[in-house]
Amino acid sequence: MRSRRTARAARGGAWTIGLCLLAASDAGAAPPGPPPEAPRPKVVLIADRRTDAIMARVYAELATLGFTVVVVRGDDDPPSRGSVEASAREDGAAAVIRVREVPGGVDVSIDDGATGESVQRTVMDGDPPTVAIRAVELLRASLLEVRSPRPSRGEGDAGPKARTDVDAQRPRPAKPAPVAAARPRDDGASRAPPAPPPRPGATRSAPATFGVGAAPALLWSAGGVPASPMLDVSGYAMIGPRLGLSTFAQIPLGSVSREGKEGTRHVRVALAGLGVRVPLGPRDAEWLPSIGAGLAAAWLHVEGDGRSPEYVGVAEDAFSLAPYLRAGVSFAPFPYLRISEHFLAGIAAPRIVIDAAGRAADTWGRPFLGASLGVEVALP
Q: Which range among 17-26, 48-57, 129-138, 334-343 shows the weakest confidence by mean pLDDT?
């Protein structure tokens, strides 16, 4: 029994000694201190002495951003770019920043000491505080650009690799949508494109296929017969873009009188012609001249009144063929309506002779002339 108590006492003492040693070790350990600070990135700042006011502001802003700034005086002949970059890599500088005064502002360039990429900006302003603030803002943005995996679109001199990356990320242009061809309708007709709108203030007549007109006219002939009042009735039909068939008839509105020693002669004249018509312009033009030619038939009726019982009045008719020329011009104030003027010239063959008691008192048809002014209705 005694021996068992002695063993238990020994084991209890061992536990007590271990706990005491553990507590002593914890009490003697020093409390943990603050973690060591990370090294601040270094920036090499190069500037000439004329930009001291701006450099002080830039220096303060870079220090506020957490950079260790090393200032190098460039004066008028700053270090070369290659030597500064090499020194920056050896010293572990994050970037090399150059600030040079240019006319009207400051030129700021940044070289990455690790990658060698460069960003350059120019701040144009005459106020030093404004230049400094703007330069610091550009420095912040430029430092982000230097650290970005790809150059931003604002950098001026991008390398071939940068251009390849940008082109690879740029979406391909969309293919133009195909234009559907006009399909014929079920009835065999196709839809024509809409006509362009007419010019403001211009009156366009319809392209005429048929046309009819009426106009008062005068018909005169050399040989003694006075000019006769006529009604000119005309029509045409186009058989091509520049060729048509035309017809006209001049109907007498009254008779003309001619006095002689034998008595009085009353004369009526009528003409009817058929020919071709050539418009000298588009058929829907506002002003449209035309020319034509053909063959006409002339009819002349004479009635005589004797002056004395010695002379007896008689009535006679005469006919003749007459080749003619006809020219005109028309104006379209409204669609399908034209104001037209025509001129007529021809020669009767044979010449018509008016006999008075056995002598040739008058002649007609060598030549004859006519003129008319009226309206035409154009039919599509």
A: 17-26
Q: What percent of the chain has pLDDT over 90?
A: 33
- At 7, the pLDDT band (50, 70, 90 cuts) reads very low
How many whole angstroms separate alpha carbon 149 and alpha carbon 61?
25
> Confidence band (pLDDT; 50, 70, 90) for 313?
confident
221: amino acid identity, one letter: S
Q: Which residues of 45-62 are buried (b: 16+ CB within 10 A; e: fewer)?
A: bbbbeebeebbebbbebb
- Residue 221 pLDDT level (bands cut at 50, 70, 90): very high
Q: What is the DSSP letter of 262?
A: S
Q: How far apart are CA 376 and CA 135, in angstroms?
A: 82
Q: Which residue has the tokens 């957490």?
A: 66
Report domain extents, the chain.
42-152, 210-379
Interacting residues of 369 by C-beta distance below 8 A, sequence separation 6+: 219, 220, 221, 343, 344, 345
Looking up tokens 């003697």 gives 28
Q: Residues of the chain with pLDDT > 70: what percent?
A: 62
Dist CA 208 CA 380 (whole Å): 5
DSSP string, 2-62: HHHHHHHHHHHHHHHHHHHHHHHHHHHSPPP-PPPPPPPPEEEEEE-GGGHHHHHHHHHHH
pLDDT of residue 247: 97
The predicted pLDDT at position 152 comes to 44
- The pLDDT assigned to 35 comes to 59
122/137 Cα distance (integer angstroms): 12
42-152 folds as Rossmann fold (3.40.50)
Residue 243 scores a pLDDT above 70: yes
Q: How far apart are CA 110 and CA 94, in angstroms?
A: 10
Question: Using N-to-C axis directions, what is the helix angle for 128-147 and 52-64, rounded to 10°?
Answer: 40
Cβ atoms of 266 and 303 within 8 Å: the answer is: yes
Q: Are the C-beta atoms of residues 355 and 225 closer than 8 Å to each other?
A: no
Question: Which fold, 210-379?
Answer: Porin (2.40.160)
Tell me what pLDDT residue 319 has: 96
